Amino acid sequence: MFAAVIKELRIKQWVKNLFVLIPLVFDRQLLNSEALIRSTIGFIIFCLVSSSVYIINDIMDIEADRQHPKKKYRPIASGKIPVNMAWIISIFLVLLPTITSFYLSPFFAIIIIVYFIINLAYSKKLKHLVLIDVMIIASGFVLRVAAGVSLIVVERFSPWLYVVTTLFALFLALGKRRGELITLENGNFIQRKVLDGYTVPFLDQLITIVSATTIVAYSLYTFSAPNLPDNHTMMLTIPFALYGIFRYIYLVQVKNEGSAPDELVMVDRPLQITFLLFVLSVLIIFYFF
User: Fold this and answer.
1) Is 80 exceeded by the pLDDT of residue 86?
2) What is the pTM assigned to this prediction?
3) CATH class for domain 1-157?
């Protein structure tokens, strides 16, 4: 049972919650011990609450998951975790962190509650609405960044990063839908209802639009945000952002992958190297220049 619970928490997807740390890094407070501790606790809280959301989503989708070639092996769909037990675990994972979040910041707690409610609505209804589904997914990333902002005393954080986060999250969500659509075309199983409203050409168009605007928005941030070095060295990070986006498009449109973006980051070596170089370049520019 314990192993099944750990698997159901989807720890690999906790990488999404690193967006909570973006304000800490980009506001140049990584060396501020108090801000670091508060942001780390916030990250952990978001991990637990997001796992609660995953569990509820699996409970809602239990019949569809049992018909899916991969999802049928999930602990709840396979019966390794009884539905009643899954509800208990989910409630515990959301209640304890939410109560704790009030001690960190009331506004942070409100964001946690809003995030949970939105995801409940997503699991119940919104994930079946074309375009609304990917916008809700993107909103979750923006809320993570806003949560990070609420945990520290912001001095230099640029609103441009909200724009970049929104566009980048949409980019990932659209790639995920495309990957799911390709999987659907190659197999016979119950699908997401929302996929009836998408086609590969339509998703490719949206990916092109969003990827281009993401690049433009990030580029504008690197030389127009007021908190950056005066010598515009932040522009040196643009090539890494470009390659990362191009690599993801390659994996999604050429290799027909992308149904699980978080897993791609964990297994694709070029993406990992690009992410590492991007983070290192940002840290060097912010903290050594």
Assistant:
1) yes
2) 0.91
3) mainly alpha
